[in-house]
Hints:
Elements: H1 9-13, H2 29-41, H3 47-56, H4 58-61, H5 74-83, H6 86-100, E1 108-116, E2 129-136, E3 141-147, H7 154-164, E4 171-174, H8 181-189, E5 193-197, H9 205-218, E6 225-235, E7 238-248, H10 251-254, E8 265-275, E9 278-288, H11 294-318, H12 331-348, H13 356-365, H14 367-374
Helix pairs in contact: 2-3, 2-12, 3-5, 5-12, 6-12, 7-8, 13-14
Amino acid sequence: MKLKPKITIADHFAQMEDPRIDRTKRHKLIDIITIAVCAVICGADSWVAIEIYGCAKYEWLKTFLELPNGIPSHDTFARVFAQINPEQFQSCFVNWMKSIQKVTAGEVVAIDGKTLCGYYDKSNDQRAIQMVSAWASTNKLVLGQVKVDENSNEITAIPELLKVLELSGCIVTIDAIGCQKEIVKLITQQNADYVITLKKNQGNLYDEVEKLFKSGISNSFQGIETSTYKTEEMGHGRHEIRHYVMLTEIGSRLDPESVWSNFNSVGMVESVRSLDGKTTVETRYFISSLEENAEKFANCVRSHWGIENSLHWILDVALREDDCRIRKDNAPQNFAVLRQIAVNVLGEDKRVKLGIKNKQFLAVMDNKYLERVLGID
């Protein structure tokens, strides 16, 4: 008897165009995609591993897949994922994630890039590729990702990512490379706020902001709406104090021609770190659409760091992304989507108090658990 899932993978990937010519279609595209999704959730990190998973789980997979010619070979998985349109695959992934959980009002969405080191192949003069991802910090979900063009950088990729996301009511955080007028405009057009690190080479704006804070410190910020917040952390021989200062209602002073959309405030973070008897001080500046609330500003800054500690760490340590040697055509981008599906569905399951790696082990051992994280139980 076939399973009757509430929502199947096929529902989300039904619009995918099959890149194969008719004579090569021994296996249904949705069967290939579904097996790959399940396998990567369970820890598969190569096409051979996906084939092995499919063969081991054949009887279970047959309960909801047609599999007219059995389990595809690893060469078939490699060939198909190298040809699949990565933009379409990404779009299906984004739509699936939207169905899992809507981002909540005030959610901090961190946008950041990550290099896929395993794609680098010196012998074939093949450079490592870079992906830009959007991470919902509170819900711990990957909302979407795009590949950075080989001849460009994140500045061109970030707008493409913003266009496919639903950000209304969220606060978008980006590091200094995203400090661009067009990027800020795209964020505010979606009725979202932003906190963006200010670049030192951003015209005169950086100098003006730095001058404003220095003069404000000397005169106790007289005549300027000011909010402050402080955090202190100790552990493993490290002592760090962070001072957050937020100045509001300064848009007309720093941006009289209103070239920056919804420019309402600037923020400063001064980090004083003591480690092994040495003390270092780092100061960074930010532009923002937020109103006066230094604690909220501090949460946004710290949440942005979370994309490194949460998403990137999981991809590197648990899913071994940097060790992956999949390099042909569109395959690296599409396999990156498979990993991010795994991060989301395993992270979304809160009923089992385990880390991602142990959840993967449980999913490969227990089909019922895998059905649950896929939402088909």
